[in-house]
Amino acid sequence: MGDRTRSVIDASYQNSFAVRAGYLPVDRGELDQWHLQLSDVIAKHDVTLGYSAAVAKIRDLIYDDPIVRMWVTQMLEQARKLAKTHGDQYFHITKISELLAALDWILTQAPTYGGAVGVPKIHFPMSALFGYMMMTDAGEALFRHEGFNAALLGVLTQWCTHLESPKSASVLNGNPGGWLSPKAIHKLKLREFERDEEDEHWGYLSWNTFFYRELEDIQTQRPLAGDGDHKIIVSANDGQVRAIGRNVHGHDKFWAKGNHFSLRDILQGHYIKQFSRGDVLQSFLEGSDYHHFVSPIEGTITKIVSVPGLLFSDAESGGFDPSGVNSLVYDTAVNTRTLVFIEGHPDIGMVCVIPIGITEISSIVLADEIAEKAAVEKGQKLGWFRFGGSTLCIVFQPGKVEFTVDDGSSLAAREQIAVVTKV
Predict the structure, then answer these.
(1) What DSSP line would sit under 356-397, residue for residue?
(2) Average of pLDDT values for 351-361?
(3) Any idea what the Cα angle at residue 234 is, between residues 328 and 18, rounded to 5°?
(4) 357 and 270 in one domain?
(5) How far is CA 52 from CA 89, 106, 108, 261, in A?
(6) Residues 136, 223: one domain?
(7) Above 50 in pLDDT, residue 323?
(8) DSSP states of 27-92
(9) How many Å apart are CA 235 and CA 239, to the nearest integer?
(10) What is the structure's pLDDT at 348?
């Protein structure tokens, strides 16, 4: 596992997707506190009641596949060693039965905002559960295993059903640590969004409807740049520019250090001739961002491709990644994503908008009217992420645009990000 000292593990944790997006606390001590509380939950689990259907499938896979069982066992051993670097007061799962019990419990819970005394700020419980596991050699192998990844997707799908149910709205309250508490309202800018403050849960019917909440008035809150001017390209989403790639290769080492986008892998081989040596802008969404995405240009949708991919996987091949730099670029090539190809004005050519799921965010929803051969306006909603923000790429054909934003720039959906080079 290399020189994964306490300081290196802290840096890797603090720069992970879940922490940078605001879904896990920066202080790793809060993660450890959550694991200590998890130990009480596991101790109370009644194995005689069995497991939910999705967790039972993971159990069967672990016990039926000796390679998976080996990786799981080694992962738990290695994760406990990493957790131990943070002090004496810690708990980490060491048994397969404890892992299954934890997953079974999470499936019945809706995330809490946290931040109150004694309530860790854990918005992504599965990322918290797998936090140390993802930093182990065995975990890095396990979370790339096709069968295990598919079984995890089954768990997330079952959990998402719970998060769509009215029962999940119970965490939408104004109590300390609740999603409608004064701290949450300020941090998440909740008064920018549609709501009914007279209602107990502000009119949100479930956890998920809260998380992909709609703006009160997108026309005024996210004004459209260059309305009627095809030369102005707009941002598809709120967020921050994570990386800009120019003259991108068809094939590249997406797992290596640096911004090595690999177009054939990102685009699953579609329209490679048109996009070869093109440009890529990748942005990163935080929890307080608007979680819907829009079309950056006016045009016609030529193709939509859903790409199933990995869920909990980092780019350790380029070296241990305490900055989190490598993993977001790596995610563009291997994670669950949707490719929306849009043919625009001849000066622009074809553009591909790619919302990408990370960790718990495994579901990307397109609006009902978004289909192949459909015409779209610049700034028109294409879809949204279920359970929060993630990362998004826009791919341009070579020599078509000049970016007007830099790496690290803050973005608002529908604001200018580029201009066409041909005028």
Answers:
(1) E--TT---EEE-TT--TT-EE-TT-EEEEETTS--EEEEEE-
(2) 88
(3) 25
(4) yes
(5) 31, 11, 10, 39
(6) no
(7) no
(8) SHHHHHHHHHHHHHHHHT--GGG---HHHHHHHHHHHH-HHHHHHHHHHHHHHHHHHHTT-SS---
(9) 9
(10) 97
Q: For residue 277, what are the domain limits?
A: 218-420
Quote the CA–CA distance of 256 and 327 in Å, as a whole number.
9
| Position 115 in a domain | yes
- pLDDT average, residue stretch 205-216: 94
Identify the H or E element spanning 104.
helix 96-106
CA distance 248 to 144: 25
User: Which has the closest alpha carbon to 325: 291, 374, 282?
Assistant: 282
Considering the domain boundaries, does residue 205 fall inside one? no
Residue 17, token pair as written in the block: 């997707």
Three-state DSSP state, 205: coil
Residue 319 confidence (pLDDT) = 41
Question: How buried is residue 27: exposed, middle or buried, by Cβ count under 10 Å (0-12/13-18/19+)?
Answer: middle
Three-class secondary structure of residue 7 per DSSP: helix
Same domain (yes/no): 114, 248: no
Nearest to 412 by CA among 283, 313, 301: 283
| Total number of domains in the chain | 2
Report which of residues 101 and 13 the model is more confident about. 101
pLDDT computed for residue 234 by the predictor: 98
pTM: 0.90
Q: Give the Cα separation of 421 and 386 in Å (integer).
A: 35
pLDDT digits (tens, 9 = 90+) for 59-112: 999 999 999 999 999 999 999 888 877 666 678 899 999 999 999 999 999 988
